[in-house]
């Protein structure tokens, strides 16, 4: 038993080493990825009830010649632990703005990590980039999660208020998975709630998920907010969401994220119907 125990400890140590080495590799690769042109954005349509496309969420992709397709869930948290997230985030903003200019009227929804949001002069930073590109702030949506706001509620409220005053759209991402969700929607100036896909996924199976989806839809509507159901994967989910009165939908059943060229084609068509 003792040997087994020691073995476990050693395996644990080795895997720690492995994971630290892996992190360093990713960090190193990522810091060169922009210059080497290995990053790209893909865009997933967000549609209204009649399948008209109102916006696109920008999602980052890293095609590394060394590691292959690295999913953002793997490298964003690593970037988030260093200043790399700022460089990466700025690249995403600029790229999203650039693509947005060719769409007829839809908005682009950009993910901001908590650390970007907490950056000194965050508002001035975003405003400068969007304004200097000549883009209307109403076509730029800032997606944040509750993690970004809960550690300094007063400051977050001030930032979101300023951004919204200037016409930016604000969406609360992964709604329902964070802390004190109801408090946050009362306290903050928001345009859009994005229902986390775990609830949409559970809708057809569990009474609890279905009840939560229904109440978020009603809450959003009562407060004049757009509600986007994320992760719609089946026709049955789409139908259930429509019946529940959900205003907007996003998910593989409607469209996978597509590259900029295909997004332009969809944007010009204006609808997924
Ligand atoms: P998220 O913001 O919640 O983005 C939605 C994720 O769900 C995306 O994964 C999208 O491809 C995926 N998705 C969309 N429809 C469906 C569906 O019907 N079923 C399922 N199973 N998944 C669906 P992706 O692109 O791998 O991104 C993962 C996460 O990485 C994002 O979650 C976001 O937190 C982060 N991320 C992606 N791009 C960026 C970025 O530019 N900046 C920052 N800070 N984070 C990003
Ligand atoms: Ca998002
Ligand atoms: Ca989400
Ligand atoms: Ca998420």
Automatic annotation (TrEMBL):
<feature type="domain" description="EAL">
    <location>
        <begin position="23"/>
        <end position="271"/>
    </location>
</feature>
<protein>
    <submittedName>
        <fullName>GGDEF domain-containing response regulator</fullName>
    </submittedName>
</protein>
């Amino acid at each position: 038993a003792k040997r087994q125990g020691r073995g476990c400890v050693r395996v644990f140590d080795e895997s720690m080493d492995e994971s630290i080495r892996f992190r360093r590799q990713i960090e190193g690769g990522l810091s060169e990825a922009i210059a080497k042109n290995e990053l790209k954005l893909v865009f997933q349509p967000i549609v209204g009830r009649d399948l008209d496309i109102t916006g696109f969420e920008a999602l980052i992709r890293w095609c590394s010649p060394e590691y292959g397709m690295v999913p953002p869930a793997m490298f964003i948290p690593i970037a988030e632990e260093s200043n790399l997230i700022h460089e990466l985030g700025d690249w995403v903003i600029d790229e999203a703005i650039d693509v947005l200019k060719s769409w007829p009227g839809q908005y682009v929804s950009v993910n901001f990590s908590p650390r970007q949001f907490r950056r000194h002069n965050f508002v001035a930073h975003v405003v400068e980039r969007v304004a200097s590109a000549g883009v209307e702030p109403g076509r730029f949506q800032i997606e944040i999660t509750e993690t970004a706001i809960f550690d300094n509620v007063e400051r977050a409220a001030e930032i979101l208020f300023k951004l919204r005053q200037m016409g930016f759209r604000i969406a609360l991402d992964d709604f329902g998975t964070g802390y004190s969700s109801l408090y946050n929607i009362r306290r903050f100036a928001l345009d859009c709630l994005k229902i986390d896909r775990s609830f949409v996924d559970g809708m057809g199976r569990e009474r609890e998920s279905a009840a939560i989806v229904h109440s978020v839809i009603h809450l959003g509507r009562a407060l004049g907010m757009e509600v986007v159901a994320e992760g719609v994967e089946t026709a049955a989910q789409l139908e259930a969401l429509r019946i529940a009165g959900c205003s907007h939908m996003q998910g593989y059943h409607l469209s996978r994220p597509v590259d900029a060229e295909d997004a332009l084609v969809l944007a010009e068509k204006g609808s997924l119907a």
